[in-house]
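Researcher: Here's my situation. A collaborator sent me these components and asked whether they could plausibly form a single complex. I don't have experimental data yet, so a predicted model of the whole assembly would be a useful starting point for our discussion.
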Amino acid sequence: MPPFLFQDTFKLNGEDSMLKYFAFRVMQIPLVLLIISFLIFILVYIAGDPVAMMLSADASPQEIQQFREALGFDRPFHVQFGHYIMNVIIGDFGASYQYGVSALSLVLDRLPATIELATASMIIAIAIAIPLGVISAVRPNTLIDSIATGLSAIGKAVPNFWLGIMLILIFAVNLKVMPVSGTGSWKHIVLPAITLGTAMSAEITRLVRSNMIEILQQDYIRTAKSKGQKSLVIIFKHAFRNSLVPVITITLLQMASLVGGSFITEMIFSWPGVGQLIIQAVYEKDLPIIQAAVFVTAIIILLMNLLTDILYRVLDPRIKYN
Amino acid sequence: MNKRNLFYTFMLSTILLISACATTSTGSNEVSVGSEKVLNISVGPDLMTWDIHDHITTTTETIHVNVFDYLLMRDSEGDIQPHLAKDWKQVDDLTFEFELNEGVKFHNGDDLTSDDVKFTLERVAQDNKLRSHGDYKTIKEVKVIDDLNFQIITSEPDPMLLSRISRQASGILPKEYIEENGWDHFKESPIGSGPYKFVEWKRDNRVVLEKNDDYFKDIELDWDQVVFRAIPEESTRVAELLTDSIDIVANVPPNDWDRVNGSENSMIVNGPSNRTYMIFLRAQEGWPTSDVRVRQAFDYAIDDKALVESTLNGGGTPTLTRINPGNLGVDEALFGEYNYDVEKAKTLLAEAGFADGLTIELAGPTGRYLKDREVLQLVAGMLEEVGVTTNMNLQKWGPFVELREQQKHKDGYLIALGSSFFDAGQSLEYYKTERAESINGYSNPEVDQLLEEAELSLDQELRMKNYQQVQKIVAEELPILPLFQVDQFYGVNKKVELTPRLDELLYIPDIKRK
């Protein structure tokens, strides 16, 4: 099931009710963002201010204190929070402590690279998962099924950092057919996309398989078979298409989480995305970047959730919001 | 439109939108890797900023130093040489007068004059929100005499002034260009007067510089273009070196040295840095280490040579002082030496009342310095040998800095500090009562007196004598245990000739093509 919020509290029917439902969902977004902002501020505040890290290890306590005062980190919690939240409301996350430029623009600059990697990974994941899932569902409990499910278990179990480094060693260092890291050509995206896509494909394979197995046992499939339909038509036209609904849900939600940054993969392949930026910002307690990045990511995830809901409804008209 | 069509239209537009975003991100940053006159470097992280006064990292300075010129510059041995300034003299206790080289031009063709020097130095000396402010705040004013002559006036006698202006954040900025276009523009399209010009910066990806054909110095530049790639992951940097995509990579971890040296095209090049691994110990009452005999026992228990051999394959030098050769005031007799005598350590502990052993906690950062965690683990093992049980409190850099600043650590901590001033005056300040109060509580009036006398004296002979005296005293009293000076390790393509500089910068004019 898709992750509906307040699903049970809304008993509406028909097209009109759907619109109202989505309008309500959209209206929730600012509230959710405000709560997220508050939580992040508290967490970063508890973690301590970044001033000592911003100066050299040789800086004296007096210098650190003077710098703290100059940047306003000595102000009481409520003053800092008030100042911060007023700026967030007007979309100003402030300048990054590390880089001295607008945190939001830093995040938005890196977003395309992250979306690009997420899309490529998803394409790879789907290209692996759907054939594997379908084959293993059509021939359940056979050798081919065991291989497919075995592969997906391995795909899920292998850690990203290990797979990434292995791919670099094999394809870049030994075979020299792929670049090691960075961006610049289509080749640069292949290894990071495989690294990320493998784990995702494992999940999708299992989902396709279980859905297909369930659907292949439905009455309408039996009817189609008894009508003498070709098995390929039954598998792809009747069974596969109907098994897609939850697959699309999971795929979109995974895509959303990828947009939040694939920290490890981006680090290993020096991919200039949001993940690298966030991880550095967390180390340096760079609140404006953390805030802007989480904010942007949260918006994307919320919108993806909403999109999933809409698609669900479009793909399967039987689903009612009640 | 029926629902199915609506769905397909929607999916198609989403895909198109995503592809459009994707193309803009990485469309045109192909660099001619492999071309003979392009030097590809990765020092790890990306450039922080083009604001030379608002960062504290060597990895950023290593890019800045090629675009902006300092007034004076240290050579690879650490000696101060003329650079933008061809001559200088001390006028009185508070005033130094400099003369600039003629014909120095910024990359946009503007002349570099005394006005630019005044603009640059007064900015960092006065704006307390800049990260480098603390290092320049002794500068009270820059007095312009004419286009090529100026005076730097300090608020108190500043014997470290020449060191101050020949190091990180000492580049001279173009006043007119910045005033006309604003700082934001400058930070996106910086110009300096250095041997290399800014071409582009793709964040978290690369900085590209090209040769400045109009450079004021008559030197041969071997590289037409220099690319600094941001590759934070060590193993990826090494893989880039092994595939010949990068010519120089910094901070190669010891476990990769054999792989690099075993490859056809690359090798490890190492040389001393100005960084020393040391353990700060509490000297305040209430801690076992407040007894000087306990601190001395630790010194005798730790085999500095073995630390260097087993963690860094010998890439470092044991030492009894934090001041390294190449720094003003070094006591060379203490460098290269170490104390190691397990029996003596045990005796000292017994004399201090710890014959049955004791338990301490040492903190330390992980992932900040080469093999930092392993060094601390070995130290703990060595202390165990003399009956000292060591609990380790290993932290990432952020929490560690906080622990240190707020004095939340217990008996001591490991840290590796450099000294960008190349002057004992900076490094020995830790032993002054006033400063040590917020570190480890060490206090010795004789040390205070020697340091204070040297601090405001422009007599370099006297300063050297005092600093050497202080080093002798603290090598006995050991509020800080110096362990070893660490080397820097670069993986270098064999077509490149690199001699590591003591200040850890990669100054491209010194890097030659074989």
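Model: Some features of this prediction you could bring to your collaborator: Residues 3-16+272-488 of chain B form a domain with the Dipeptide-binding Protein; domain 3 fold (CATH 3.10.105.10). The CA atoms of residues 66 and 196 of chain B lie 6 Å apart.
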